[in-house]
Amino acid sequence: MTTIYNGSKGPTEISTMNGKHAATAAAKLRREAPERVTEIEALEAHAARMAIEHAAPDENPRAVIGGNMPPEEIEPVTASTDGPATIAGRNAVEIHIADLLAEASNWADGVPLESEDQASQVAKLVRMLQDAGKLVDETADEEKRPLNEALAEIGTWRNGWLAKGLKRTPDGKITTALSALGRLSTGWLIKLEHDRQAREAAAAKAAAEAAAAALAAKQEAEVTTDLAVVDDAQDKMAEAMSLIKQAQGIGKAKVRVDSGEGFRAQALRSFWTAIPTEEDGAWTAALKHYLPNPEFQQELREMIKRWAHRDAQTEAGRAHPIPGFRFNEDRRAA
User: Fold this and answer.
1) Which is nearest to 5 in space by CA: 22, 27, 30?
2) Are residues 138 and 90 in contact, defined by beta-carbon separation less than 8 angstroms?
3) Residue 215, exposed/middle/buried by CB under 10 A (0-12, 13-18, 19+)?
4) Domain span at residue 300?
5) Which of 6-20, 136-150, 201-215 has the lowest mean pLDDT?
6) Structurally, how many domains does the chain consist of?
């Protein structure tokens, strides 16, 4: 049995390969060069040995690629590391990527490149892996397309009824109807509120007048010897207290409209928003107000980092130093 695997990096001692690399290389040969029987058998045997040596006590030592039989071939696949690939379907893409990753493991073994030819092969492998990434995106997009179209149709249907305040999308029919009816209800409730305020003012005035009369009667009762005057003062005080309670009740009452059995009644509610005053120094004052807040500080840092990173991407941006930042150049193969 042979002890050498002839891969893209050249002859490699099979005994020095890790189990995963050996199993993947064997599967690749079964697809692309099944006539290399001795290499395939040697690779699979080495992968099986490595699996047994590294398996936990409860693991199946034969549960390795090629341990029982080679992976099922998926058609159509015309993919290899020797040229462009014509690939259709997720399974075919996965097989193609597995081959490329096997080659990547073969090259990325801790040994530096030694020649221009090796560097060229690695550069080609990089481009093929990048193309494989595009295949993943394209395949995923193709699989998602009918789902996205269905979601878009559902979203369009929902927006037709419920859209509210969206750019380039009209408000939905239910939203529009609710807005119109809401204005009607608000107008009526405001009228009721004005009526309540008028009744409250009238009740408060009557209570104040009654209280003033009661106090005057009380003062008179304190110096009189006429029991009738005392009784009258007490009656006026009781009446004043009743009017005061009535005015307080009107003041606490909330205007509302019954919505029918099983529905919540309508009432006036307060909805608050913050509107910039646009006065001189207003934005600076607001910034000083929020700066001590740790959550605001974190969001502000992230925003500044995004702006600084954006400037670092262009020569024009790097031409102007950013206080608190430095531009770092990291040269990498690309």
Assistant:
1) 22
2) no
3) middle
4) 275-334
5) 6-20
6) 3
Q: 3-class DSSP state for residue 332?
A: coil
Q: What is the pLDDT of residues 205-251, one digit of tens each?
A: 999 999 999 999 989 888 888 888 889 889 989 998 999 998 899 88
Q: pTM above the 0.70 mark?
A: no
Quick one: 279 and 258 in the same domain?
no
What's the pLDDT tens digit per position in 16-27?
888 878 888 888
Q: Would 182 be classed as within a structural domain?
A: no
Residue 86's identity, in one-letter code, is: T
220 within some domain: yes
133 within some domain: yes
Q: Based on the domain organization, do 260 and 284 belong to the same domain?
A: no
Q: Does one domain contain both 121 and 37?
A: yes
Computed from CA positions of residues 281, 286, 289, 292, in that sequence, does the dihedral angle turn out positive or negative?
Answer: negative
- Cβ-Cβ contacts under 8 Å for 37 (sequence gap 6 or more): none
CB 77 within 8 A of CB 37: no
Q: Which two tokens stand for residue 188?
A: 């009526």
Omega of the bond leading into 70 within 30 degrees of 0 (cis): no
% of the chain residues with pLDDT over 90: 55
Enumerate the H helices of the chain as residue ranges: 19-32, 37-54, 90-107, 116-162, 173-221, 227-252, 282-290, 294-312, 315-318
